[in-house]
Amino acid sequence: xxxxxxxxxxxxxxxxxxxxxxxxxxxxxxxxxxxxxxxxxxxxxxxxxxxxxxxxxxxxxxxxxxxxxxxxxxxxxxxxxxxxxxxxxxxxxxxxxxxxxxxxxxxxxxxxxxxxxxxxxxxxxxxxxxxxxxxxxxxxxxxxxxxxx
Length: 149
Prior knowledge:
Elements: E1 3-6, H1 12-25, H2 32-44, E2 49-55, E3 58-70, E4 75-85, H3 94-108, E5 114-115, H4 123-131
Parallel strand pairs: 4-5
Antiparallel strand pairs: 1-2, 2-3, 3-4
Helix pairs in contact: 1-2
């Protein structure tokens, strides 16, 4: 049975490994030590909420959410920034369970909702998100300014 739960600091090494695989999926270089530092800082500083999918004491996937605030709604919202499930466990509904946990966090905190983004070429993600109630905004444009360029 797969358990979806909030991560604790004892999960750090396993989450860092999953986070590293997530970054590799998005064509970033493998860097497990930096992944561990980055995730550890988010956890220790309470800067994100991380949920994990666990079975037989092995972490199969995770999602990481960051708090945002909507000035016009005068409420918190959540950014579902990261979602990853091990290749060996895809197609079993784990991503949907992690997303449902994120939606429950939004309800529990009285937030306005959950935002996310994915690449246009992410065929699986662009099929998954509408199937769990997300819709593409037709009222806003998302822009990005890149400090690295």
